[in-house]
Design goal:
CATH topology of the largest domain: Quinone Oxidoreductase, Chain A, domain 1
Structural class: alpha/beta
Distance between the termini: 17 Å
Number of domains: 2
Largest sheet: 7 strands, mixed
CATH class of the largest domain: Alpha Beta
Helix content: 25-40%
Radius of gyration: 20 Å
Number of helices: 12
Order of helices and strands: EEEHEEHHEEEEHHEHEHEHEHEHEHEHE
Bound molecules: nicotinamide-adenine-dinucleotide, ligand AHE, zinc ion
CATH architecture of the largest domain: Alpha-Beta Complex
CATH superfamily of the largest domain: Medium-chain alcohol dehydrogenases, catalytic domain
Shape: globular
Strand content: 15-25%
Number of strands: 17
């Protein structure tokens, strides 16, 4: 079938809006009509050429919500008409990783997903007879996409697509990093570096967890008001701090953060996030994705003296199990998504959505099909 898509033709170039061809679902696959998709910084990261796994041409997008329109053979858990959120971290419930109960990083289809292909090693997308790659197994920058059954969370039908699409990445990543990965406890002091689409959800997660001091760090002063609305108690603009940021934060927290979160993808800031943690127990969680070739460093003494460096993908969430619950939290008013979606646009304007994110004018832009 013909579908409308934003195609990443080449690294560093704007997406091209055009018609591409999509084959129907094969065994274990599902055809989804995408109703809305958020634009995450990771889409920009891959489009920029910084992603070692980046492939072109590809249909990017990994923060979607939509409706099942067809299922391939052997699909048992979904049917036509079901509302779904695609999962770039699937949940097969059978692989060694899923069965371990120690990680959310299901590996059932990770190899082909990283190659921009469906699990059988082929792509469903093409243009003029030439292969177009999938992205993160989701490719939500197209109004129809094919996704493996194990990479779809079935969600309630009364939830609005243009809001819950954000649960497909940013909301779950930010809140999950606090609850699943760091396991922040009531009364903890938390420092969040980067107050964008992810960091503001970390702030909201920290408030849910009952944190005491919630410090937000961002070079964009425009982030202060919205972060306060989500629970931030102190704002720090590194550009206004005299001297080093780390001792400033250690002083502010009276000894160091119990938990810190890096939500930027900047390896210098990752070091600051670790080193502002409390001696003996502070835990720093890396969420930001850094470009090819970049590495983190610190004095090993920082770890010898009890600080812990961790990372998280999709907030440690097991998508098919956890995502429907997070949709319920939204529908029950326990979490705020609406105020973070600052811009909506048709697919035609998706490049403007990227520009708004890059300039710091938007928190989350959402494409509504
Ligand atoms: P965003 O562009 O919405 O937000 C980034 C924020 O960081 C902005 O507010 C910006 O002003 C701020 N910032 C930039 N440089 C800074 C600096 N030096 N000091 C302080 N603040 C600074 O991006 P996002 O969508 O929130 O994504 C954030 C990061 O998280 C990206 O690297 C993205 O790829 C990554 N990410 C990771 C996961 C995961 O599962 N690990 C999931 C989603 C996104
Ligand atoms: N492909 C990159 C890494 C990109 C990355 O870390 N992706 C995160 C999700 S970011 C969502 O906005 C992730 O889930 N990682 C785990 C995984 O298996 O990809 C690289 O550096 O190669
Ligand atoms: Zn994302």
């Amino acid at each position: 079938m013909d579908v409308r898509a934003a195609i990443a033709v080449e690294a560093g170039k704007p997406l091209v809006i055009d018609t591409v061809q999509l084959e129907g679902p094969k065994a274990g696959e599902v055809l989804v009509e995408v109703k809305a998709t958020g634009i995450c910084h990771t889409d920009y990261f891959t489009l920029s050429g910084a992603d070692p796994e980046g492939l072109f041409p590809a249909i990017l997008g990994h923060e979607g919500a939509g409706v099942v329109v067809d299922v391939g053979p052997n699909v048992t858990s979904l049917k036509k008409g079901d509302h779904v959120i695609p999962l770039y971290t699937p949940e097969c419930r059978q692989c060694e990783y899923c069965l371990s109960q120690k990680t959310n990083l299901c590996q059932a289809i990770r190899v082909t997903q990283g190659q921009g292909l469906m699990p059988d090693g082929s792509s469903r997308f093409s243009m003029g007879g030439k292969k177009v790659h999938h992205y993160m197994g989701t490719s939500t920058f197209a109004n129809f996409t094919v996704v493996p059954e194990i990479a779809l969370a079935k969600v309630r039908e009364d939830a609005p697509f243009d809001k819950i699409c954000y649960i497909g990445c940013g909301v779950t990543t930010g809140i999950g990093a606090v609850i699943n990965t760091a396991r922040v406890e009531p009364g903890a002091n938390v420092v969040v570096f980067g107050l964008g689409g992810i960091g503001l959800n970390v702030i909201q997660g920290a408030r849910l967890a009952g944190a005491d001091m919630i410090i937000g760090v961002d070079i964009n002063p425009g982030r202060k008001a919205i972060a306060e609305k989500f629970g931030m108690t102190h704002f720090v603009n590194p550009k206004e701090v005299e001297g080093d940021l780390v001792p400033y934060l250690v002083n502010l927290t009276k000894g160091g953060a119990d938990y810190s979160f890096e939500c930027i993808g900047n390896t210098t800031v990752m070091r600051q996030a670790l080193e502002c943690c409390h001696k003996g127990w502070g835990v720093s969680v890396i969420i930001g994705v850094a470009g090819a070739g970049q590495e983190i460093s610190t004095r090993p003494f920082q770890l010898v003296t009890g600080r812990v460096w961790k990372g998280t993908a999709f907030g440690g969430a097991r998508g098919r199990t956890d995502v429907p619950k997070i949709v319920d939290w939204y529908m029950d008013g326990k979490i705020n998504i609406d105020d973070l979606i600052t811009h909506t646009m048709p697919l035609q304007d998706i490049n403007k959505g990227f520009d708004l994110m890059k300039s710091g004018s938007s928190i989350r832009g959402v494409v509504v099909y």
